[in-house]
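The material for today's practical consists of a large collection of protein records. There is nothing in a record beyond a sequence line and a structure line. Backbone structure tokens are a discrete shorthand for how the chain folds in space. Nothing more is needed to start thinking about how sequence determines fold. As an example, a complete record with its sequence and its structure tokens follows.
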Amino acid sequence: MQHFNSNGKILLTGEYAVLDGAKALALPTRMGQSLQVSEIDEKDQIEWKSFDPENKIWFNAKFRTENGHFNPVLSEEDQKDPEAKTIADQLQKILQSAFRANPGKFENSYSLSTRLEFDRKWGLGSSSTLINNISNWLEIDPYSLLKESFGGSGYDIAAAQSNNPVTFQITKNGPVSFAADFNPDFKDRLFFVYLNRKQNSREAIAHYRNQNPEHLQKLIEKISGLTESIISCDSLQEFEMLVQAHETLISKAIELPKVKQQLFPDYPGCIKSLGGWGGDFILATGSSENQEYFRNKGYDTIFDYSDLIL
């Protein structure tokens, strides 16, 4: 039996602009996802089970393998479930891409089980941790597997592989990541709030893409500079100033209001969107007493910085 584990992620800086070469700061989370692999006797078969944090199965399927094709076999109930069919299709795509990268690994049949340590709705990296675990098992390049399956910049793969904050950047030679010395003295004044507002980011991405090349290049340079400044800043006041500058730049680029302006205009501290704007988590500055502001508005999933980030 083989066991693999990958960390979840928070993208602190560089959302949207990371796709075009901006330097981003990614934070690995304490909660991640594991993969357990065992060989089985059945021929030409992959058995798959996915467990949630309560150890309940949320997806279960078999894949019949034949000449690099992985055909999902779902229960009668799951065949009527659009989500189960979508997940099966995604896994089929991942397995077939993985087969092309290392066909020799699939000469045997396997039982695979995944275990999430966080709610998969939170956006902490259920896809990226899966891709990284499968790549580690098969000894293939996770960035290539990500590109052929879910897509994206790859910052989440860098976080999945690291136990420290990392900078991530797409260069002409491919993605690069380095350990970042980001461990602020004021982290006890930082916390994360889950908004539970899944957003369609296509419009935001369309506005971002509509910028002329000159404006886009300036944005990339400014975001990269802010990332470096945020890593090196040594006071909460400076951090808040830099975060506000980052919010202003991205808000203008994607033509969306800042989340503080939209949802929390009377909050006394600073608020930053994370990842796709308007959904998943936000970062807020303040004390434990300030967290009550969000709880009173119905946002009950709140993490202190050190409870969420490695």
User: Anything to note?
Assistant: DSSP finds eleven helices and twelve strands in the chain. Residues 195 and 280 are 5 Å apart (CA to CA). The longest strand covers residues 24-40.
